[in-house]
Design a protein that fits this description.
Elements lengths: L16 H5 L5 H16 L36 H5 L5 E6 L2 E7 L1 H6 L2 E4 L14 H9 L4 E5 L9 E7 L5 E2 L2 E6 L4 E10 L4 E4 L2 E6 L4 E9 L3 E12 L4 E8 L4 E10 L5 E10 L4 E10 L5 E10 L4 E10 L6 E11 L5 E10 L5 E11 L3 H8 L5 H18 L4 H22 L1
Parallel strand pairs: 1-5, 4-7, 5-8, 6-9, 7-10, 8-11, 9-12, 10-12, 11-13, 12-14, 13-15, 14-16, 15-17, 16-18, 17-19, 18-20, 19-21
Antiparallel strand pairs: 1-2, 3-4
Length: 430
């Protein structure tokens, strides 16, 4: 992991109010940046003593090592984008700025638009703001908005590639996906960098699903192992809307993603499944909030992870059911495989139920341990070599999430990435 020792406190030469003001853009965005820069300067950096940063090496983050990139970064490449040949659009974002958009004739005819937000959008509203969320708001260069109008059905996926292209950069990409009433779309979002890039990334994705719409989102993170990332995924489904999310985390030195699903509207649905695989000394850190406000809302969160070498997995999750949230259904599940003695996982699921009288279901489950010996013995007893048996078990552990991803072209590159890590894990354990 990055040796990023720092003193506490955000007295950082690269991240001042003057530098935020120099980013330009529409007046509402400049005003929002100025307000956030003031909050950042007055807010202490998070520490591992804070519940939402528990178990983390956040004290090692030295933002002084990074600088804002010059506009117009290098080329953007993506094996995942290349694997999806039938698509409604291709969106390239380099170092947080939109650098290219291609929409199919069908997407254009349906009224899909992609571009920087010119009119004011709803401010970022994470459930647990801190200095790093203020930092993002202060230095986001632009907000890229993908809009799907009411009643439009986009049959093929829109592919987004968000790349870090500048060595030593601090990047703050922000993508908003808005679906109109009764529309339908699928998004593939690939967060990537060169393998040897050193950078700090603060990506934010907002999924705003209009009433009765279906928004499917597949997110893949495979930053290089010298990237420190603190990302947010905000899901905001409307009345009777479906937000369906699949996530895969493969890269990063320290890679954090806070998944914040707020179900304000009646009948809103958020269904989220995620996988991660840590090797070497990677840390994968997932946090989740399923916040039920509206009646008949439904949420599910499933996280499966594996760690090998000296890798560390972290998960804390919370289901919150508020007083007005009648007849809700919610569940969260975390399953982890620890593939050798040097690796470790911390997992803490939680429930907070204010409305205790009218809930259809609410619960959580968590388990962490090695590969099941009985499963391995079963395969070995049928002539399967031990290393192959272990690969098959771990592959099967992940594959229910991978095989459910709605974009066929994503599945094989993901399986290949898992296979590469499994080969290393089995070799190191042998």
């Amino acid at each position: 992991m990055l040796p990023l020792l720092r003193d506490q406190g955000p007295a950082l030469s690269a991240f001042t109010a003057d530098r935020a003001a120099a980013l330009g853009g529409p007046g509402w965005l400049r005003a929002r940046r100025a307000e956030a820069a003031g909050r950042f300067e007055s807010t202490p950096m998070p520490t591992a003593a804070d519940e939402l940063w528990r178990y983390t090496p956040v004290a090692d983050l030295d933002l002084d090592r990074f600088a804002l990139p010059v506009a117009g970064g290098g080329g953007v490449t993506s094996a995942f984008a290349d694997a999806v040949t039938d698509r409604a659009g291709l969106v390239h974002i380099a170092d947080g700025r939109l650098v290219g958009v291609e929409l199919s004739p069908e997407a254009q005819a349906a009224g899909v638009t992609v571009g920087p937000a010119e009119e004011e959008t709803t401010p970022l509203d994470p459930a647990d703001p801190d200095a790093l969320t203020a930092l993002h708001e202060a230095f986001v260069p632009e907000m890229v908005v993908i809009r799907v109008p009411a009643n439009a059905v986009v049959d093929q996926p829109i592919v987004v590639v968000q790349a870090i292209t500048t060595e030593g950069a601090a990047v703050f990409p922000h993508v908003v996906v808005e679906t109109g009433e009764s529309s339908e779309v699928t998004i593939l979002d690939h967060w990537t960098s060169a393998a040897d890039t050193t950078a700090f990334a603060s990506p934010v994705v907002e999924l705003r699903a209009g009433d009765n719409s279906t928004l499917r989102y597949v997110g893949v993170q495979d930053f290089g192992e010298q990237v420190w990332s603190t990302g947010y995924l905000l899901a905001r489904p409307g009345r009777d809307a479906n937000t369906k999310v699949w996530l895969a985390a493969l890269g990063g030195g320290y890679a954090r993603l806070y998944v914040d699903a707020r179900l304000d509207a009646q009948g809103a649905n958020a269904d989220i499944a995620a996988v991660y695989f840590g090797e070497d000394d990677q840390t994968h850190d997932f946090r989740s909030l399923q916040n039920h406000v509206g009646s008949r809302s439904v949420s599910n969160f499933l996280l499966k992870g594996a760690v090998v070498d000296q890798a560390h997995g972290i998960y804390t999750g919370l289901i919150r059911v508020l007083e007005g949230a009648k007849a809700t259904e919610s569940f969260l599940t975390n399953r982890n495989l620890v593939l050798n003695d040097g690796a470790s996982v911390d997992s803490v699921p939680n429930l907070e139920i204010v409305n205790e009288n009218d809930i259809r279901s609410c619960g959580h489950a968590a388990a962490t341990g090695p590969v099941d010996e009985e499963h391995r013995f079963y395969l070995e007893s049928r002539g399967v070599p031990t290393d192959v048996a272990e690969r098959l078990i771990v592959f099967g552990f992940f594959d229910d999430v991978v095989s459910a991803m709605p974009i066929a072209g994503v599945r094989e590159p993901l399986r290949q990435a898992v296979a590469r890590k499994l080969t290393k894990a089995v070799t190191s354990n042998g």
